[in-house]
């Protein structure tokens, strides 16, 4: 039996010393197992934002922020983006291995036969104003799925977990496309099973009943690649939200709706929408220095959207693939001189040379380019984070399944450092100042 590694903690307030196990994974930082810390020391840890805290053991995605590495079940993201397709990556994330030809065909067949939603759900949209933010609609309609699938809500039944997982991955593009159609006042377009996942999504987004709509294969491939790049990303804010929701035993549809709500934030998945809004605000290259200065100013809440990352202190490997895809799409659409891309490229050049961004290792992240690609495809800014949610649903579902199956997992219930008032006597109203 290998010698157990430990970490020693000395509590100078009592002079007592404690030992805690130091656990190793297959790669990446070791973790100090502090599950007995409170029982042994009477102290909590304090780590707002969980920058130094591992919430779980996972085998799905590994990120090395310093090296700019992203692996899904061991496969580098650039290899998957180049040689795989989104449904194959979905299978990999869910099952741990790339599918063989039969497994791939069976999985594609399953997913393509769950892409319709209950017709009653279509009427749910009509309760929203047409100008409702599509992410607000998605929070509502995805949560509402739990009202339709009473046959797959028992999270302790592996069969229920499997069918719910397939339903979520299959239906999310339909619900997303319908959120767009509803905002445009256009009729909903039903999925077509002969189309690929990405083709089907683009078809439901842009087809109309009036004429046949042929999906541009270059755009379909670009969309498929973008879905791969956003599929999963370890224990980010929205994935942690899904895990925490699921730890209480909430049904998977409610958990994914919670993940969508968390992703909406501009510091997280809402950044792609925020990038476009920021580029529009900058307006021209000559104003870039003004905004770079604001981004550095501690008294100015302005952040350079699309730059920086909690984990990556190197170039986000997804951003590199996204940059290549961005140029492919703009060449295909003949919008190479798109002013916004020129502005974005100049902003990237300046930021990568600026000492502030260099020393703080604030590189462009995945959201920096996705917004420009989506805009070139004719997707409105308000739909950008919805597309992120479509792609990330498989990651949330895979992480949720892993959490449910983990024997060490229990309901998440963090503690706190209390800094408020200590006990005091009630003051009747007539005695208050
Ligand atoms: C995603 O977690 C994930 O994996 C998320 C994601 C996924 O796939 O799930 O990768 C998707 O959310 C990508 C990130 C998209 N967000 C944005 O592009 C918004 C702009 N970025 C920042 O809000 C920020 O970089 C965060 C929120 C992404 C990270 O914030 P942190 O963890 O606070 O960043 P940090 O600790 O590394 O910051 C170091 C310093 C800080 O200054 P000091 O306190 O040291 O003086 O850099 C500053 C920050 O204030 N800083 C920025 C900046 N990002 C960080 N300054 C200017 N502009 C920025 N964009």
UniProtKB/TrEMBL annotation:
<dbReference type="InterPro" id="IPR024176">
    <property type="entry name" value="Citrate_synthase_bac-typ"/>
</dbReference>
<protein>
    <recommendedName>
        <fullName>citrate synthase (unknown stereospecificity)</fullName>
        <ecNumber>2.3.3.16</ecNumber>
    </recommendedName>
</protein>
<keyword id="KW-0816">Tricarboxylic acid cycle</keyword>
<comment type="similarity">
    <text>Belongs to the citrate synthase family.</text>
</comment>
<dbReference type="InterPro" id="IPR010953">
    <property type="entry name" value="Citrate_synthase_typ-I"/>
</dbReference>
<dbReference type="InterPro" id="IPR036969">
    <property type="entry name" value="Citrate_synthase_sf"/>
</dbReference>
<dbReference type="InterPro" id="IPR002020">
    <property type="entry name" value="Citrate_synthase"/>
</dbReference>
<dbReference type="InterPro" id="IPR016143">
    <property type="entry name" value="Citrate_synth-like_sm_a-sub"/>
</dbReference>
<dbReference type="GO" id="GO:0036440">
    <property type="term" value="F:citrate synthase activity"/>
</dbReference>
<keyword id="KW-0808">Transferase</keyword>
<dbReference type="GO" id="GO:0006099">
    <property type="term" value="P:tricarboxylic acid cycle"/>
</dbReference>
<comment type="pathway">
    <text>Carbohydrate metabolism; tricarboxylic acid cycle; isocitrate from oxaloacetate: step 1/2.</text>
</comment>
<dbReference type="GO" id="GO:0005737">
    <property type="term" value="C:cytoplasm"/>
</dbReference>
<dbReference type="InterPro" id="IPR019810">
    <property type="entry name" value="Citrate_synthase_AS"/>
</dbReference>
<keyword id="KW-0012">Acyltransferase</keyword>
<dbReference type="InterPro" id="IPR016142">
    <property type="entry name" value="Citrate_synth-like_lrg_a-sub"/>
</dbReference>
<dbReference type="Pfam" id="PF00285">
    <property type="entry name" value="Citrate_synt"/>
</dbReference>
């Amino acid at each position: 039996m290998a010698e157990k590694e430990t970490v020693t903690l000395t509590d100078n307030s009592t002079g007592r010393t404690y030992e805690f196990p130091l656990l190793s994974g297959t790669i990446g930082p070791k973790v100090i197992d502090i599950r007995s810390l409170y029982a042994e020391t009477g102290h909590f840890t304090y780590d707002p934002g969980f920058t130094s805290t591992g919430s779980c053991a996972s085998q799905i995605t590994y990120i090395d922020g310093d090296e700019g590495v992203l692996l899904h079940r061991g496969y580098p993201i650039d290899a998957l983006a180049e040689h795989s397709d989104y449904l194959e990556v979905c299978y990999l994330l869910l099952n741990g291995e790339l599918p063989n030809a039969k497994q791939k065909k069976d999985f594609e067949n399953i997913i393509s036969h769950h892409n319709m939603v209950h017709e009653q759900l279509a009427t749910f949209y009509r309760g929203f104003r047409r100008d409702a933010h599509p992410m607000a609609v998605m929070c509502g309609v995805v949560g509402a799925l739990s009202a339709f699938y009473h046959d797959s809500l028992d999270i302790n039944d592996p069969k229920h977990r499997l069918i719910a997982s397939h339903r979520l991955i299959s239906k999310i593009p339909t619900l997303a496309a319908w959120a767009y159609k509803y905002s445009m006042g256009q009729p909903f377009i039903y999925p077509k099973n002969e189309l690929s996942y990405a083709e089907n999504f683009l078809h439901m987004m842009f087809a109309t009943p009036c004429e046949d709509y042929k999906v541009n294969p270059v755009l379909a491939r670009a969309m498929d690649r973008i879905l791969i790049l956003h599929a999963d990303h370890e224990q980010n804010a929205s994935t942690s939200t899904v895990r925490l929701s699921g730890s209480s035993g909430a049904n998977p549809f409610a958990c994914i709706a919670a993940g969508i709500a968390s992703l909406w934030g501009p510091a997280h998945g809402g950044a792609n929408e925020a990038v476009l809004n920021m580029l529009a605000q900058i307006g021209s290259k000559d104003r870039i220095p003004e905004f770079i200065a604001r981004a550095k100013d501690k008294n100015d809440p302005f952040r350079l959207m699309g730059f920086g990352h909690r984990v990556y202190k190197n170039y986000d490997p997804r951003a590199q693939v996204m940059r290549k895809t961005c140029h492919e799409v703009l060449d295909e659409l003949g919008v190479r001189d798109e002013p916004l891309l020129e502005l974005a490229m100049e902003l990237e050049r300046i930021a990568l040379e600026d000492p502030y961004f260099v020393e703080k290792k604030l590189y462009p992240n995945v959201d920096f380019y996705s917004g420009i690609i989506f805009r070139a495809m004719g997707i409105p800014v308000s739909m950008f984070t919805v597309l992120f949610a479509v792609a990330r649903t498989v990651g949330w579902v895979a992480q949720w399944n892993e959490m449910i199956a983990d024997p060490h997992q229990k309901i998440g219930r963090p503690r706190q450092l209390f800094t408020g008032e200590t006990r005091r006597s009630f003051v009747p109203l007539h005695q208050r100042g």
